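In response to reviewer comment 3 from the previous cycle, which asked for concrete evidence that the modeling workflow produces usable outputs, we include below a single protein chain processed end to end. The sequence was submitted unchanged, and the resulting structure tokens are shown without manual editing.
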Amino acid sequence: MLDGRTATRYKLEGTELDVVIEGDSRYEESVENLKQLLVQSPTGALVPLVMVADIKTETSAVAINRNNQSRYVTVSADIARPRLGKHCE
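The workflow returned the following structure tokens.
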């Protein structure tokens, strides 16, 4: 799913924007690889995702989401700015 396909659309002030996910496919291979994905902090520093997020697998409802016949997964997050700042100073 990191090949640049549109994952979803986001509506902002009446305009719909495509949300496109691009990246190295090695981050799809394992949770350990995903933890090492570098993300930019508010200060501009690159830090591993595991430094600013709790990453875990969980059981969820059995469903296959599709968009134009392609399967997709929904990823949610709860942004905690104090935690992000602690690791990015």
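Residues 81-87 form the longest helix (7 residues). We consider this sufficient to address the reviewer's concern, and the full set will be provided in the supplementary archive.
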